[in-house]
Amino acid sequence: MLQSVSDFLVITKRQLLQMIRIPEVLIFATIQPAMFVLLFRYVFGGAIDSGVDGGYVQLLMPGIFVQTVAFTLAATAVGLAADMQKGLIDRFRSLPISRSAVVIGRTVGDTLQNVVTLVVMGLVGFLVGWRPSSGPVKIFLGFLFLLAFGYSMSWIGVLIGLSVREERVAQNLVFMTVFPLTFLSNAFAPTTGMPKILQYFAEWNPVSTMVAACRELFGTQNVFGATANSWPSQNPILMSLIYMFLLVAVFAPISVRKYVRVSK
Amino acid sequence: MKSIVAQELVKSYGKGEVKALDGLSLEVEEGTVLGLLGPNGSGKTTTVRVLATLLTPDSGSATVAGIDVLKHPDEVRKVIGLSGQYAALDETLTGWDNLNMFGRLYHLNSAAAKKRAEELLERFSLTEAARRPIRTYSGGMRRRLDLAASLITKPKVLFLDEPTTGLDPRGRMEMWGVIDELVKGGVTLLLTTQYLEEADHLADSIAVIDTGKVIARGTADELKNQVGGERLEITVEASQIAEATRLVEQATGAKPTVDAGIRKISAPVNNGSASLIQVLRLLDDSKIHPLDIGLKRPSLDDVFISLTGHVAEVVVETEGGKNATKRK
User: Fold this and answer.
1) Model confidence band, residue A208 (pLDDT cutoffs 50, 70, 90)
2) Hey, what's the torsion of the CAs at A2, A3, A8, A9, to 10 degrees?
3) What's the ipTM?
């Protein structure tokens, strides 16, 4: 047991080392969301009448946070596909280490990268007027929530990365799915403007429940929420926790199984 | 004692239409080197992957260092080292980082992993490049580091899958030197290669593999003898071919083959040097002075062609071969 913990820590450490060895990767990974903050804040912020205290940026920041951590899936998928392609996964599989060490190490490593990204984004947000008003405990819980969501999304990335085996395919596949998912939500605009069928989708979309949960935890009224008094929009925190649990419960075992049997 | 035993391994891909392994059996004596020789798609990599616990065969059994590969893969992983066709390293990390990481994954403690990394870098002449990321390494350096990574816990059995494919001649010579050193250290080695010369140079015995089966095995000498023994070859002036051919037949008792274009006459001989002297004496008596004369042993290339009916280094574009290669 102790041995497996040390195994996955070595894999996680490898990723942290990568950040130190090529800091450009983390810098760009952080610049992109920071740029999003600025663009949305100043391009849409002026046009959208948010109707909340402190303006659009209060609604925007939880949206961008969730979008960013949802993309952890991409980092995981692309990273693992690259390792597959280079034969590194084969080498790991020939070592006397626990069967889940490599994938757990990967998901934890990607989550740690999110810590850095979230801190930078939070600071940029603060600079452009984001003022969470719920007090330190709830703000901390909000960030913890975001990290947990990123971690559970990461497990889908494991399965994708090990299945497609090609860095570029992984990249395209992930962007094609995660982008619509983050926009078909309450993250950037009210869902009431969408066609009815998309409204239902947006209401149950885990991204929406996550954004709603974060708005609640950061102390902003979720005026972009769904129109109907549906269960997920009434109980966003609980619903998000259920989604996270389901993601890990479903994808972690499938992914570990995939790793054990994967063959280049 | 047998260090590697594979019995009747079968592995097919897709819905069973492509057989990568088709009843492959082999044995490697402890402390010796077996060269698994075959063209692309013949099943070399699949064999290594099965023995290194990466792939489960459809049927058959195998033991490595006496441990059942299918029943106790975890135990096998503790005693093997694997270095694949492509240097399987983290490109962004330095050579030192990589070895240290693999050391920790082999469960050395922090100090031991560091010490071992230093030792291996020194041994493979990579100390100077130790703090540089792998992506700045040459092909030969990557392969050496990859090999170093497979030696961290001094494995009892080592698998090298095409260790020199893609290297330039200098890189290949360096790699051969490194492998020679290893073998002196007593490791059991299974090495795959497409290069006949490489098998001849590095391996104690050779198994020729084609379409997922071992089709011949023995030492390089035994395989050469299988094709036929030595041949006497002489080259003479065009006007003397007829006379010389008659004399060669008289001396060797076998019908020579004549290639008029390059004026070469050749014939199989049983007692090499004696026949050579006899032919020379007869030629001298007839005042024929050969331009070139010698005894030639069949090369492993000849062996390969006579066993498989095709040349070794050409990629075999059969349905099975192609798919098997693609799915490696």
Assistant:
1) very high
2) 70
3) 0.87
